[in-house]
Fold this protein.
Amino acid sequence: MKLLITGSSGLLGLNLALEAMPEHEVIGVDKGRLKAPPFRTIQRDLLDDGAVDSVLDEARPDWLIHCAALADLEACEADPTLARRLNADLPSALAKACSARGLPMVQISTDAVFDGMKSGSYTEEDHPIPVSVYARTKVDAENAVLEANPDAIVARVNFYGWSLSGRRSLAEFFHHNLTNSKSMSGYTDVIFCPMHAAHLGQTLLKMTAMGLHGLYHVVGTQPMSKYQFGVEIARKFGLNDGEISPKSISASSLMARRAHNLYLSVNKLSTDLGEPLPSFSAGLDLFYAQFKEGFPQKLRSYTQA
């Protein structure tokens, strides 16, 4: 199967491409950040006029997995126009172009579509209530993609892992600061379900192979606070979890509003896949093993000329 992956230099896009390579032909879309990746890339800015059609016609993929986005919540608040172009208008254009070609696609969405006021877990039946610019643009993208391309998969995700820059994921943030004996805060009142990016990539590939379509929650199976997540990272790497101070997000200076409860049920997906999703402990073990095997350095080598 030939996969076209947008945002192929991003945390998810790059990890997904590497997971897919052994069994699939991978073509990444990148704006020039990748210099020596082990897969073919098309260097293009998808916001340019005509770029969506030209990239799809050049790649002629069997599936499009759209990972590219402006995922920095603060950046979205600062530039809502750019956020809308990248996070809503572009997925809509891709979905229409894919539909015209009979091409299935995966739209990567976010757990942040909810306001976090529900007690317990959210299911795919719960109505989104976005509380930030980022979340609103992602909800609009979900609706536009499924309207234009009913065969698409919309995957609401939350993931971590090693990135090209080494600064992209929350896990890297904790690891970097703890390794350098820098104190930091961990939010005790933000609950989420993190999944390792490689496990997310593997799960998305299974979903495409089975021809699933529609809305799915594709997150980790274990809800936890961001403070607890940091403590788990510290203990796995033998670092001092005392450097992490428990803190309420209400005391932060963040501009974009964050929901307190982003506990998403994955029952629909595990049922349709016929198997459980990877556990948090398996993801944490992989994150540690990759570090010991030099995976972060391997990623950085893909930016060398």
